[in-house]
Write a structure and sequence with these properties.
The complex is a heterodimer of chains A (about 110) and B (about 120). By secondary structure, chain A is an all-beta fold. Chain A has no helices and 11 strands. Chain B has no helices and 12 strands. The chains are: A mainly beta (about 110), B mainly beta (about 120).
Chain lengths: ~110, ~120
């Protein structure tokens, strides 16, 4: 069974540009999470989808970040316009129907904003 | 508010030594889950273990063992006879059942280096 996949693995963009990150969860996992780790800090929760619905987006830093999960399958996280402080590693995780299940993580996308 | 503290930022040991990674947590919930994840140099977060707050039995899996003590709010991780392949960043995390999103709260991680 394929694990959580993320694309791209690395992205380098200039301040003010737009970047879209993609996450494909494990097949059959209704719960999808986004987290990020900014340099030297903890991994922080961004938001949680149950199927195509946003369950909790309390961790989203500001309105420059937009997450979608059309059809309840893969998810995208768009940053527009990107700022220097957005640099970090963005992780996606998924879990099965009951949201107390273990979250399985993808390899992350390393975003560098210059 | 929930919080996870991993006071050891970096640990370096020589192969075959035992090493314990500390994790202390704070929560007001009576029902919660604790996790350990491993992040090898390749970058992905690999799930190691999940414990719920009602199960204080220690667990052993091969060279790995976990000591959960509610009295001290700790969930420590011990690697016995460490190997070079154990070198990674290890994260402890907490999930509170009452939080609808079941989001994980992570510690800052412990970088373990096992020298040959």
């Amino acid at each position: 069974e394929a694990g959580v996949t993320q694309f791209p693995s690395h992205s380098v963009i200039e301040k003010g540009q737009t970047v879209t990150l993609r996450c494909d969860p494990i097949s059959g996992h209704d719960n999808l999470y986004w987290y990020r780790r900014v340099m030297g800090k903890e991994i922080k929760f961004l938001l949680h989808f149950v199927k195509e619905s946003k369950q909790d987006e309390s961790g989203m830093p500001n309105n420059r970040f937009l997450a979608e999960r059309t059809g309840g399958t893969y998810s995208t996280l768009k940053v527009q316009p990107a700022e220097l402080e957005d640099s970090g590693v963005y992780f996606c995780a998924s879990s099965q129907r009951t949201s107390t299940d273990t979250q399985y993580f993808g390899p992350g996308t390393r975003l560098t904003v210059l | 508010a929930q919080k996870v503290t991993q006071a050891q930022t970096e640990i370096s040991v020589v192969e075959k030594e035992d090493v314990t990674l500390d994790c202390v947590y704070e929560t007001r919930d009576t029902t919660y889950y604790l996790f350990w994840y491993k992040q090898p140099p390749s970058g992905e977060l690999v799930f190691l273990i999940r414990r719920n707050s009602f199960d204080e039995q220690n667990e052993i899996s091969g060279r790995y063992s976990w000591n959960f003590q509610k009295s001290t709010s700790s969930f420590n991780f011990t690697i016995t006879a460490s190997q070079v392949v154990d070198s990674a960043v290890y994260f402890c995390a907490l999930s509170e059942v009452q939080r609808s999103a079941r989001q994980l709260t992570f510690g800052s991680g412990t970088q373990l280096t096992v020298l040959p």
